[in-house]
Amino acid sequence: MRFLGRLLFSWLVLAVAIALTAGLLPGIEIHGGFFALLRVAVVFALVNTFLGPILRLLSAPIIILTLGLFALVVNALLFLLTDWLTDSLSVDGFLTALLGALLISVVDGLLEVVLERRYRDPARA
Predict the structure, then answer these.
(1) 28: phi then psi, degrees, rounded to nearest 5
(2) Which listed residue, 12, 56, 91, 119, has the most CB atoms within 10 A of its CB?
(3) How far apart are CA 14 and CA 26, in angstroms?
(4) What distance in Å separates the CA atoms of residue 28 and residue 101, rounded to the nearest whole number?
């Protein structure tokens, strides 16, 4: 049961990160409301889980040569793939996807750290 709770927590945090990104970047839009946002978060999580490691492994030499910067390109491609797989997400182009993927990663990471810390120790809230 703990695994399911953690999975739902991560899914909701990712949905919030995507919503904030869509609100901040004019080239990214979510069509269909809250449940469409949750669908986009699920698709993005699945794309990252299953295709992300394969793409990162295949592009490892380039990632190493660019000191990790090419990983941002991989994340942008995964975000564009999510756009292609779902009708609820619309991304204007590669540069928008690059900025969006970067912003989603940063916001998701920050929210995970802050909310996880408060979840573990309610006295810090």
Answers:
(1) -120, 125
(2) 91
(3) 19
(4) 11
d(CA 114, CA 73) in angstroms, rounded, equals 27
Decide: residue 117, CB within 10 A, 0-12 exposed, 13-18 middle, 19+ buried. exposed
Bridge partners of residue 90, in order along the sequence: 29
Cα dist. 114→11, 23, 107, 118 in Å?
15, 21, 10, 6
At position 71, the amino acid (one-letter code) is A
71-93 pLDDT, tens digit each: 999 999 999 999 999 999 999 99
Question: Considering the chain, what is the average pLDDT of its residues?
Answer: 91
Rounded (10°) angle between helices 2-24 and 94-120: 140
